[in-house]
Amino acid sequence: MPKNTPPLPLPVRRxxxxxxxxxxEARLRRRIQSAVMAERxxxxxxxxxKLEKGDPRVGMGAYANALYVLGMVDRxxxxxxxxxxxxxxxxxxxxxxxRIMSK
Length: 103
Known about the structure:
Layout: H1 10-29, H2 34-41, H3 45-52, H4 60-69, H5 86-94
Helix pairs in contact: 2-3
């Protein structure tokens, strides 16, 4: 990462590392060679290696393509889904009016 960029929070780094390792394991379970996977994801082999290590400099599109190749892209749309956001739902509920006045 560039020197003037602040480091990522530890939970973010851990989550990216886990995602990369999970993608790698899924690729290996499917017996897809790294060269073939890189071609399907439309990245170079070194970029695929970085992706599988959870490198934050790899674009989100590459992670999304990797999930697509592995048949897991449907889960990507659920990451920030309101159904998975109890804090957001609670805040929205607290902002509701306590009573509604008629005009």
